[in-house]
Amino acid sequence: MDNKGHLTAIVDIGSNTVRLVVFHGPARVPLPIFNEKVQCRLGKGLDDTGMLNPEGVELAYETLNRFTKLVEVMEVDNVSMLATAAVREANDGPDFVQEIKKRFKCDVRVLSGEEEAKLAAYGVLSGLPDADGLLGDMGGASFDLVALDHGTFAKHDTTALGHLRIMNANRASISDMRAFISTKLKPLNWLDEMGGRPFYAVGGSLRAVARLLMNYIDYPLHVIDNFTLGREQAESLLNILAKLSQDALQSVPDVSRKRLETLPAAIALLQEVMETIKPSHLVFSGYSMREGQFFLSLDDTLRTQDPLISACINLVEREGRFGQQGEEVFHWMAPLFPDESEKFKKLRHGACLLHDIAWAEHPDYRADHGLLRVLRLPVAGLSHHDRALLSACVYSRYKGDFNRRIATPLRTLLAEEDEVWTKTVGAALRLAHTLASGAPHLLEETRLEIRGGELILSLPEDEDVFLGEAVAKRVKGVGKHLNLSGRLEHG
Q: CA end-to-end span of the chain, whole Å?
């Protein structure tokens, strides 16, 4: 991969962490090739002193020295350095910014509360363009709220509910934390309008709660983005988590010790949000203001691309062996699905693009590799049900056994009525591969049609390349999933 001239770096000087993320792009879906954070805790003690944490300041300088040198060595030519609530509010924030400029010859953009909130919203909207509900981004010093109206911004507010502030020494228990949180949320009368719509949870501390929830319920898919719970289930689980001991919390994998310290504040915040706002669902986002900043750096053409289809195309361009034959396959099998919704049409499109994703694996493991690769696809905007549908199509294409342990996420996340669709798509992908085997435009010489209670594959006259037992067998296999007989027709 030639990185030169195609890297975007974002340095996020947050109230709790200082982070460098380097994305490969421009591309519709941000692909992080480097991601490192240091917990400097610049906002620790801010309410008591009005100043940045002195120890955090020195650690931030040390961290930024490393980050700026890394950016230079990586030859990144598009760098954004953003500072958030602690730097914005501290009396010595301007001096801190000037020192950064002096030491590292970098411009620092200190975000207003509104800018910080909207960048977080753009991060979510980059994957869910039509998101409709309330977004809450919890940082170290602030909790930013944005109302989303089918993809557009409505009301917003910034509150002093970052986890460093909630965890003030005078608020040791979750009940004390919730009382403090309540005093900050109640004056925001517009939040009453947000009931019955999803709440999108953004920020590292809230993602840590998601990991805790997944671990507690033994959730079958370890993907934070779009992990969703209904309100009643979320309230019940949060109440349980609030009573867990520190030892129990420490047993959770993939949560750092320092992040564990923020869990009580994050749990208390979510409890209060669920009780005060009464959203329909709790939806965790794996994206934040950094992805929002990246999204805004794209041109209008890239921004309007569908994130799933764009990600699939980019993946095939990097790793595929047959180019964009998936597009041919997608249009070729369309007669099998005359009444499909736009959602299923898009997922089928994605499955067609990814139909050969495991070609380089050992034949005995192609189904397993395809299942896991697609289920964990690094793209925003897919519900976990969508991921399972897409993965099941590819798994079926490789004749995977849905009763095996590796297919547990599919059995857990999919309903019985999903089986016909995923297995029909999978069988059609196998048939397409048998017919064309990657040869350009060969598939276009054939035609699928449902006629008179039969599935018919029309083949050109005197074209021996399509003749064979495998073709006839796989046509019947597709028809079986549709409760149709299947046959070949020549001429």
A: 46
